[in-house]
Amino acid sequence: MNHIIFGKVTAGYDVVQKIENAPADAQDKPVTPQKIIKAYLK
Questions:
Q1: Which Gene3D superfamilies does the record associate with it (predicted)?
Q2: Phi first, then psi: what are they for 13, rounded to 5°?
Q3: Is 3 exposed, middle or buried (0-12, 13-18, 19+ CB in 10 A)?
Q4: Cα separation values, 28 from 5, 10, 23, Å
Q5: Rounded CA gap, 13 and 19, in Å?
């Protein structure tokens, strides 16, 4: 599944940074899957 998501982080930016800094392999794919469990639309 490849989906591009556009949005604005209004809270929890520390979580975004953790996802961004997750270890990646030589192809720049995360070593462990990164998932967003909950998201809210405003």
A1: Cyclophilin-like (2.40.100.10)
A2: -60, -25
A3: exposed
A4: 18, 27, 9
A5: 10
Residue 40 identity (one-letter amino acid): Y
Domain ranges of the chain: 1-42
Least-confidence region, from 4-8, 12-16, 17-21, 24-28: 4-8
Alpha helices in the chain (DSSP H): 13-20
Residue pointed to by tokens 């809270």: 11
pLDDT greater than 80 at residue 1: no
Task: Assign 24 a pLDDT band (cuts: 50, 70, 90).
Answer: very high
